[in-house]
Amino acid sequence: MTAPARFDTTAGRYRRLSLGLALTALLALTLADIDWVNSSPWFELGRIGWGMLTPDFFGVESLASAVANTLAFALLGVAVANVTGFIFALLFRWRLVQLFCALIRAVHELFWALLFLQLFGLGTLTGLLAIAIPYTGIFARVYAEILEEADQRPAELVPVGSGWLSTFAYARIPPAFAHLKNYALYRLECGIRSSAVLGFIGLPTLGFHLETSFSQGLYSQAAALLYLFFALIASIRLWVRPWLIPLYLAMALYWLPFDGYWSVATLQQFLGYDIVPAPLRDAGVQALAEPRLWWPWLQNLLLQQALPGIVNTLVLSIIAMVACGILTLLLFPLVSTLFMPRQGRSTGHLLLVVLRSIPELILAFIILLVTGPSMLPAIIALALHNGAIIAHLIGRYSDALLLRDDASRGINRYLFEVLPRIYPQFLAFLLYRWEVIMRETAILGILGIHTLGFFIDSAFEELRFDRALLLILMTALVNMALDQLARALRRRLQLDANPQQARY
């Protein structure tokens, strides 16, 4: 008697992927440093809560200047990245361009800032380049995908002999323009968050004042800064208009002074000595032929820092991703027309805006004050921020579903009518965010969590720039490998059918 035939259905693949991710996260939990160190968390939580209820907008020095700096860095950095990223998008079919863009976007803007800090100090160029460089790689990839996915029929109908420029301007850009514009606006929102985070290394943005206020226990001042930050993010579609962008850029250029110190000698010292591996500085390049000179140094770095950092980064990222997925499935009904009335959806949207507006680094820093140092603040912060983003997207996606008039309600509607239909798109969004979660996981090391960012930050503090650069490159390679894995999974599961929303 022959065994019944088994069919490899898409639903079966979704179940296997979900089960595999869940089991991997459970295994990672056994390796994770998750502890509640603070012996009096409720006291600290109460102080923070009282501060949230009594914001002090007049207690923060240079508040207007901090807001202006935050917006100026974001506007200029995103504007430069928008232009350069669009140029690279036109050349994205070349493999070398793809690799270059993947490399620069795989390095978090905070790591770029730490590198440029050695050359330009706490100046405008440090903040501008730290945002512009990784965002260039992001814009290039996304713009190339948008142009490729746009309707190609107008370009096919262009008369023979038409010039390349006119064909591009009148046949390729118009079908993709709405998506290009919307993504540029979303990336400006991300730029504001990135600009705030740069305050953690000393740049005078909102993040600098937030860290100072929370560190000193001035929670009313910190609350005022957070509420102001929420207002900037939530109102971005009100104050950003295409015709106002040139005015904003001119004001940003006027506001930010380009007076940071730098010199050719500093550049030569940094490139020719500081970032050169220590064993090769005096021996020269010919020492590469003698492994006994540099292998002990490299082996020590790999075994003592890189390997533990990579393991902890992967452990934290997989736990955070699965937690993010669980949170998404719990939160998206709050903003879906299939489950909530209009008033309820407004409250749900407000909650998601608040959660996704706070950068993971700032959110983890706040939670760390309550729980104490461990991986727990990072997991919670990554899950809340990214879960809110995906829940918003899934909620919008579910609004387009058409249900029968006699469709079930309540939990049955969720489990049997809606969840099976949105689950493929949910997986697509989750895999798209995996690379982002991984990038953010690395930088959370500056809060004391032993991810790669912890060892990178320590190397910069010890002025061992050669170690820092090598660890940053390893971070980029791990992120690039993870991105390729996520892409392969999406192709395997055919989850790229509607990728436009997943980029936001």
Give the arrangement of secondary structure elements.
Blueprint: H1 10-31, H2 41-53, H3 63-90, H4 95-106, H5 109-120, H6 124-149, H7 153-156, H8 164-197, H9 206-215, H10 219-234, H11 236-239, H12 245-255, H13 264-274, H14 278-283, H15 291-331, H16 342-357, H17 360-371, H18 376-399, H19 410-443, H20 452-461, H21 465-492
Helix pairs in contact: 1-15, 2-10, 3-6, 3-8, 3-12, 4-6, 4-21, 5-6, 6-8, 9-10, 9-17, 15-18, 15-19, 15-20, 15-21, 16-18, 17-18, 18-19, 19-21, 20-21
Verbal overview:
This protein is mainly alpha-helical. The chain has two domains: 11-54 and 292-504, Orthogonal Bundle (MetI-like fold); 57-274, Orthogonal Bundle (MetI-like fold), CATH 1.10.3720.10. 74% of the residues lie in helices and 0% in strands. The chain has 21 helices and no strands. The protein has helices spanning 10-31, 41-53, 63-90, 95-106, 109-120, 124-149, 153-156, 164-197, 206-215, 219-234, 236-239, 245-255, 264-274, 278-283, 291-331, 342-357, 360-371, 376-399, 410-443, 452-461, 465-492. Helix 3 crosses helix 6, helix 6 (124-149) crosses helix 8 (164-197) and helix 15 runs antiparallel to helix 19 (410-443). The protein is globular and about 80 Å long. The model has no long low-confidence stretch (mean pLDDT 85).
